[in-house]
Write a structure and sequence with these properties.
The chain has about 270 residues and is an alpha/beta fold. It is built from 10 helices and 10 strands. It is globular, with a radius of gyration of 17 Å. It holds the Pfam family LD_cluster2.
Length: about 270
């Protein structure tokens, strides 16, 4: 990977970064958080530096790092470099100042709570996050999953698993950085690289499945994003978030997509 290739542009990519730092009890090696967070920082920084955008589901372990990289590397753009999607279950607790601190560099899409309970009620939590993730996937055209909470036996639906499945159904190219642990590692045991639709050679997907070398993972992804014509073609999504309209639109016929029913409001979105 060469940082001197100033003619590289990732402007076509809205890259969904799926994941979280696993709960400490699920760490399989010491300082698992360090590798995952280093990956998030390096990868998001490069994507933003070269004109791409990052899309994320507002997990508190990743969001501050993504926002910091946006402030460091995004430069002047017509559109804000990050899209965050957050359920009303948590957005309801944000005050005006907290929203302002996010929306200087990010569009914030707030989705509706689904159910009568709160964040501690598993049924309401799962249904609300499923709704949020449907909107989330419609705002991206590539997905990279890393880490992720296992939620073993606690009744909560693992986010990486659900987001990867929703992206599969939409035929969004997916990358699974499993060697750094978390739910991504568990998911890699049941997936073959060919199912990801990302155009990487099998050996490179297997490398992402197994290696804990952060720099190597970032190198593989960045080079493929920068050079692969097939990935750019696969990333053309007909149903996607349109910030000018404030809606998810099927650009083939102009119809408003069904996931819009879950959008409550937006913050920091110009249109």
């Amino acid at each position: 990977m060469s940082l001197t290739k100033l003619d590289i542009s990732l402007e076509e990519f809205e890259i969904g970064l799926s994941g979280a730092v696993p709960d400490r009890r699920d760490w399989s090696e010491a300082a698992m958080d360090r590798g995952i967070l280093e990956f998030v920082s390096l990868f998001s920084g490069l994507v933003l530096k070269y004109g791409g955008r990052i899309v994320h589901g507002s997990h508190p372990t990743f969001t501050p790092i993504i926002l910091r990289q946006a402030r460091l590397h995004a430069g002047d753009r017509f559109r804000k470099p990050v899209t965050l999607v957050m359920s009303e279950l948590w957005a309801a607790d944000l005050n005006v100042d907290q929203i302002r601190m996010v929306t200087d560099v990010a569009e914030l899409i707030i989705t509706k709570k689904v159910g009568a309970g709160g964040a501690s009620d598993n049924e309401t939590r799962n249904r609300s996050l499923t709704a949020m993730r449907q909107v989330l996937v419609d705002t991206q055209n590539v997905m990279v999953a890393v880490g992720g909470k296992l939620h073993s036996g606690d009744g909560k639906r693992p986010g990486v698993g659900e987001e990867m499945d929703l992206a599969r159904r939409k035929k969004v190219p997916r990358f699974l950085v499993a060697g750094l642990g978390g739910y991504a590692r568990k998911l890699a045991k049941s997936l073959t690289p060919e199912l990801l639709g990302n155009g990487l050679p099998r050996r490179e997907n297997v490398r992402l499945f197994k290696t804990d070398d952060v720099a190597a993972c970032v190198n593989v992804l960045f080079d493929h994003l920068a050079l692969s014509k097939s990935l750019r073609k696969a990333a053309l999504q007909p149903i996607k978030w349109n910030p000018a309209l404030g809606a998810i639109v099927d650009h083939r016929n102009g119809e408003i997509a069904s996931a819009n029913q879950f959008i409550m409001r937006t913050e920091g979105v110009s249109g």
